[in-house]
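Is adenosine-5'-triphosphate placement plausible here? Inputs below.
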Amino acid sequence: MNAALSSTQSPATVIEASHISTRFGAAVVHDDVNLTIDKGEVFAIAGSNGSGKSVLMREMILLQQPSGGDLRIFGQNIKSMSDAEVSALRRRCGVLFQHGALFSSLNVVENVAVPLREHTNLSKRLIEELSLLKIASTGFPMASVTKYPNELSGGMRRRAALARAMALDPELLFLDEPTSGLDPLSAAGFDELIQQLREWFRLTIVIITHDLDSLWRITDRVAVLGNGKVLGIGTMNELSTSTEPLIHEYFYGPRGRAAKEQAWNRK
Ligand SMILES: Nc1ncnc2c1ncn2[C@@H]1O[C@H](COP(=O)(O)OP(=O)(O)OP(=O)(O)O)[C@@H](O)[C@H]1O
Ligand SMILES: [Mg+2]
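Reply from A.M.:
I modeled the complex. Tokens:
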């Protein structure tokens, strides 16, 4: 997958983070983070709990400003964006947040319809049809589209949240820990779905995960955050030979070895 992708994709950069620093009071979360994400990539941000993955994603979707450095999305520096440009950019991005929050008072179709109601003037009927199409594209069971979030399993909730993230046909999709808490089979199914959606909709995907199986299965490149920096960046094969102690531990601890063996067995 990786080789095929790199030979056919245009090299256009979608996100460029240069010298990003982020502080909360005295606490330093990012200290000179640098990375670029190319069009069409499945790019993962990995790292231990609290290493600043979700904060970096919040900066990329303009919910939070870095304390320093430059962040360019689709070639535009976020510092120089007008309100209209920010809102236009948000329309090009779909987001599945870490805890996949759906609106508990709305059923699945109504949840997926929210961005369409907010950002388009389409008729109620068309919005419902589009929502149903998006829900179908995620493999969510169509007999359950009028159920409320508390009536769904974790895997169904994740698919519904993904359908909502896809509602406005984003070019750039952010997924924060999409498979955490899912059993291995459901997680594998969700990974397959992510790959399918990437192909169908020509998406660029930024995924935050520490699920080593997912990292081997679906990513083109991975940045590992730690100590406020990017400890390593590259394909999983490249990272698996890294001598950086934290990365090495990640790959050659017991879980890392098992995931690598499985990845090689699949080839
Ligand atoms: N709004 C905030 N105010 C103060 N500190 C914050 C804020 N948001 C995040 N932090 C801190 O920034 C650090 C990084 O948080 P972040 O949520 O990015 O971690 P993460 O890498 O996503 O971790 P996890 O794997 O647990 O999701 C943490 O120490 C967190 O407490
Ligand atoms: Mg997080």
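Short version: Residues 1-10 have pLDDT under 50 and may be disordered.
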